[in-house]
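User: For my dataset I need records formatted as: sequence, then structure tokens, nothing else. Please produce one.
Assistant:
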Amino acid sequence: MSMDRSFGSGPSSEQPAAALPEAGLREPAAAQPETGTREPAAAQPDLPASLYREICRYLGYRGITPDDEIRERIGRNFRALRDAAGKRSVFRAFPVSFPAEGTIRIGSPADAGFEVRSRDLYRNLRGCSEVILLAVTIGPGPDLLVRRAEVGDLPGAAILQAAGAAMAEEYCDEVNRSLEEQARGENRFLRPRYSPGYGDFSLEFQKDFSRLLDMPRTIGVSLTDSLLMVPSKSITAVIGVSDTPPECAARGCDTCGASGSCPYRAT
């Protein structure tokens, strides 16, 4: 793909002019409210129904309609979070090979790539010739809002945490769709993204994402000793690129071995 060996970032990033072509740098258009859902309408007109539904899922509302007060608080906290967010993304394409069953080699010796032992990721990427390493963040502002709320408004802090997680996923979806459009223009296809920490894809590989994408410099994301990302509302993922469409590829929670017992599983 034309993004090979190149970086892409959101408009707040200070990337050099040699980054991706302009089409890969524009902030993706805001997601539109989904239609045909049975979820209650969002409390505020500027909160898309799809994002509202995800916030409610992270808050644990399953089969329960939040009351008017909670819906109003969700809308208010969402607006505060949206104003505090600073979306940034970086992605880079690498060759991928499969030295053995369940083993994936990402990058080449020249890239100082890395090798992964993961049956789940192997199933996802098998048949691909390239992968895209992707990292996105909505910045440090949301974390600051959560810390302030934790001092005297624990329900508000919980809503902010849920809204931040949903907003980060939505932004990652937007960047993913932009990459899919670019791939289609080259008659290529993307596999569902897969993140370290899911299934048997170890969180240890966050180090390789950070190194190869230069995440502290490109999007301002660093790792703690326990491999958690700072800012916390950040996502890393690997996306396979192939010349043929995937055959009934699993998506989302279906790709994770822990999905059966996860309380946040999407339904």
